[in-house]
Amino acid sequence: MSIKFVKMLGKKILKYALVISVSFIAAYTLFLAYNANRLPDLKPWHQRDLMDDTLTYPVYSDFSAYLRAEKNYLDKVYNEVVVPETKLFNRYAKNNPSSPYFNGQNLNASFQLEAQGQRFRGGMLLIHGLTDSPYHILSTAKLFAQNGYYVIGLRLPGHGTVPGALKHISWTDWYQAVKFAASYVLEEIEKRGGGDFYAGGFSTGGALILHYTLQGLLNNTHRVPDKLLFLSPAIGVMPAAKIANLHRLLSWIPGFEKLAWLDIQPEYDPFKYNSMPYNAGYQIYALTGENRELVENLHENPSLLAQMPDMFAFQSLVDATVISKELGLLFSKIASDNSRILLFGVNHHYDTIISEEIARFDVETISLENLKNKILFLSNEVSTPPTTFTQTDRAFIADYGSGQKTFLDTNWPENVFALSHVAIPIAPNDSVYGKESVLGGLNIKGEYDVLDSGINFMRLRYNPFWGTVEKYITDWFELQ
């Protein structure tokens, strides 16, 4: 084969690769344009980029000083982004049912809970999820505080303000904030004479806590948490998020701003954005990619792997936000023998309208090494024919490590067929998302293509098995 032929072949391959790349970018741009064209118009809270949310970079005398600075920041945002008070269900309208202000306090803010009880036992750092706020981890925080732990629930940069704040944020900003908050938890533990250091996260918060732990182990940069708690953790997300930021080729041009948005929705939820820019999805994809590399590095280092903290994760089998299988892969590679996953199955009373693959899921079919014996599976037995909810429909937990099967006092609610991603950390009596609340208890019917956010109203917002979650957390973390 001559050198001339090789050069000519190389040029042809390069040419075809270039044509394919340009064609792909053009096709993706057309997709973005189509998607943007069907979206509603941008509102002020989508369009404004907001002042820099860099509150976790300065040095404060203590975390209370930070909370005061954050309060001023949030108040400024909500005073500048405002809609008429007559507008129903809008988080930016003052004196509105959807306002995040309760008794003058914006509950999107970070919080600290003092340790209760006669003995100080340690500190807990909790991080919320993407587009969420610290409100989503409040029930978990209270559980630890009531049992002797000082708790910080941190608001991640770009959250709890306006969805437009996520257009240019980076996951490294979130990670810097995690390190910032962890330092105050560790400072409190040292000040009180020592104690346990726990960390946990919901969704993206779980990915950030995992990153914090892996960095500490592999690089010896900071104290590693003694135990980890994961609630619907974002261990893996859809691969399509890899190209999410291609919109930047055009979205900077006036008139093309909507290209930057995956979804534009009414903002009626006080503690979670309904709208989402593509950049937010790309950042969690980038973070999980970084974590995947760190997990492989830890997996290949037996001495450091032996120091990996015990983990307890709670995950819905049908989570539509993250890839549940990725959690299993994580546990199979780096989880200790004491680590556990409580996997919520589906309500088999609805098997006739649930996809066959989901309805027939069996933990016994899991082939990943060292995983099956770490799984606790919540399911239920259904009477035949399943015409009514009877005692035989009781929910139970199958422990695949011990082989035990424990029936629960709580059953599946009649109108619930599965747990959603967002439901896991929310108690049924929650005033905002609970069973009797406006958002959690909403049951409305009509016709297709009428509601702006119709599909969101189908999503379960609370966990009917929160009492079970509390019990497992209490026992596993030895809170009592």
From TrEMBL:
Signal peptide: none
Keywords, ordered alphabetically: Hydrolase, Membrane, Transmembrane, Transmembrane helix
Domain AB hydrolase-1: 125-263
SUPFAM superfamilies: alpha/beta-Hydrolases
InterPro entries per the UniProt record, alphabetical: AB_hydrolase_1, AB_hydrolase_fold
Molecular function GO terms recorded: hydrolase activity
Domain of life: Bacteria
Pfam families given in the database record: Abhydrolase_6
Keyword Membrane: yes
Transmembrane parts of this sequence: 13-34
Name of the protein: Alpha/beta fold hydrolase
Organism, as annotated: Caldithrix abyssi
